[in-house]
Design goal:
82 residues, mainly alpha, 4 helices, 83% helix
Length: 82
């Protein structure tokens, strides 16, 4: 048990810099990568998808009956889950 704990602590120190004075050099790289990714996500694509969803809802309300609307909704949910 002592050897296992020592092994885990060694990994924590060497790989994740837990319990060390210095900061993990990869932490800043990861932070910058996440910041860059969030800035580069194209909001136009997201806006397009939201508009498409809104149009689909309007078409369902105007053209389809409630029963067909629920069938479509369940089919979409099932496709997303599976």
């Amino acid at each position: 048990m002592v050897e296992a704990r020592a092994h885990v602590e060694k990994i924590q120190r060497e790989r994740f810099y837990i319990g060390r004075e210095e900061r993990n050099p990869l932490a800043e790289d990861i932070h910058q990568a996440i910041s860059y990714l969030s800035e580069e996500l194209d909001s136009k694509d997201v806006h397009f998808l939201m508009e498409l969803i809104q149009i689909r809802k309007i078409v369902q309300q105007k053209v389809l009956g409630e029963h067909e609307k629920n069938v479509c909704k369940n089919r979409i949910i099932n496709n997303l889950i599976y």
